[in-house]
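PROTOCOL LOG
Step 1. Enter all chains and additional molecules of the complex.
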Amino acid sequence: MSKPIVATTSLAGCFGCHMSVLDIDDRILELIELVEFNKSPINDIKKFTKKCDIGLIEGGCCNSENVHILKEFREHCRILISVGECAIMGGLPAMRNGIPIGECLEEAYLNGPTVVSNEEKILPNDPELPMLLDRVYPCHEIVKIDYFLPGCPPRADLIWEALVALITGDELKLPYEVVKFD
Amino acid sequence: MGQKITIEPVTRVEGHGKVTIHLNNEGQIEQTRLHIVEFRGFERFVQGRPYWEMPVLVQRLCGICPVSHHLAAAKATDVIVGAGTGEGLTPTGEKMRRLMHYGQIFQSHSLHFFHLASPDLLFGIDSDPSKRNVIQVALQHRDLAVQGVMMRKYGQEIIKATAGKKIHGTGAIPGGINKHLTEEEREYLIHGDDYMNIDKMISWSQDALEFFKEYHKKNKAVIDSFADFPSSYLSLVRKDGAMDLYHGVLRAVDHEGKKILHDVDYQEYFKYIDEEVKSWSYMKFPYLKEIGKSTGWYSVGPLARMNTVEFIDTPLAQKEFEFFKQYNGGKPSHKPMHAHWARLIEILHSAEKIKQLLSDADLMEGELVVRGNKQLEGVGLIEAPRGTLFHHYKIGEDDMITMANLIVSTTNNNQPMNEAVKQVATRVMTGKKEITEGMMNAVEVAIRAYDPCLSCATHALGKMPLEFEMYDVDNILIERKFKD
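Step 2. Run joint prediction.
Step 3. Record the structure below.
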């Protein structure tokens, strides 16, 4: 059997989940023997070059670009996993969901103590900037997600065990404390 | 025919940046812009939350150096609980936080050097891009890869021992820290097996510096003459002018090393610094008020610190610092590739600091927290791996946040990165009919030299992939290119 192919991306996340993948430490050297990476910051393939077996998604969707990339991952990955709280339920960025987005922009660019020179009241609005969504969406509200790995971020051991379980076909043990705490 | 070129990191990892370059009919560069296309709204949505949540909430800005945000927020809330402005903590509180911070600098800089810089150095900046990545380092230079992985691991183990978790920990609280270092943790960090001991880390840090200096000797052109332009520099320094990554006064120097911000108290940072807002980027443009918007910008980070501090208070790093200064004729270095060198000197400094702290009994016992008279406002600054990080909060009588202002390290480097893009694009693209891989790479290297956290993911894990789109004057796409 050929090596399983893995793709990863970070949407509206902080990249902590990707860092947690690196926290498997020296097992990273085993991982690159076990799987082949496709589109991922780990190896710089920026466009899918083939169908993948496993897609790891960090972060929810806060703008139109996130939605576009997530849909692309669903098209190309047999199994899609929401990794971490932001992908699973929007996470910390979703704290903006109860607040009109205009207020968030005004606070950052008009009201702060170090934007006093912004007398023209400029807000970033260039066509080069992707459209902000009305709120931050968890991934499963945009596409079908097959598995969820809890944590902020999920512990390195959990990510490792989940990948090994998928590759070997064994069942992943997800004890209560891992779901409850990280 | 005028044209617009768009350079876009396609994996769009952490910060989502892209570059646009407009050429006029004569092929002259009319405008270059580095756009930051991400917006989250932290300043607004933390309002109404209790101040003691800030150290754990706000670190979720960034999972790459969360400790920096954790500690800057903790320092701002120290002021709020009346524990002083950086010097009022108990010895245990301050030393545990310093240990956490040096662990963070050690892991973040190691990650950057081994995962980002080493592929360029090992395989050459002009080598086949598809083979110039960290996986190839692991396959072809296993010893070096193991060293990089284990140095990062050691820094992460320090963070776990002080913050409780490797990523998004909870150790620092307003007024101090919530745990001591245990005897087992101390023993492990001093004498651990499988390379996990501080003496190994110091010797590996020295090896990495030697590796770089050897490379430098053989590749002067790559390190010394890429995209340098004059800049001012800003950082915290200790009151006596020593490097201090955890606490100090704010100093800025101009391109000749003359002080332009004179060791001021950072509680009043807003008297000296303001930010310009531009419609085409979510990232603001900080500048020194006294000098003004157009020329008051400055750089932060490892290279900036080499240019602001007068000495380093650990012997091995001081010796390297002296060599660095001597090489640059005692003047500030404006060479972006010298940032790699500076980063390695700071790795060594952090390792020496960690060793000193681990033998300090205050980590194991003593009061953890101090409290005084509550204040309604507090500012916390720290030298994060990528430069000076500002957190500023106000609270109401009910303890809830009413105002939060954040200037993150990479934001301070916004104008310098834009200058670097303009400089490189003008040099390599002016009058050219076709945009080549080499030109794209030059722009990429210019941005990467700042180790910007807007794409620190690609920085940390591999290369920054770029997509170029060329448009004609009517904005019709005429060509699209990808660069690995």
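Step 4. Note key features.
Confidence is low (pLDDT under 50) at residues 9-15, 454-466 of chain B.
Chain B touches chain A through 78 residues (CB under 8 Å).
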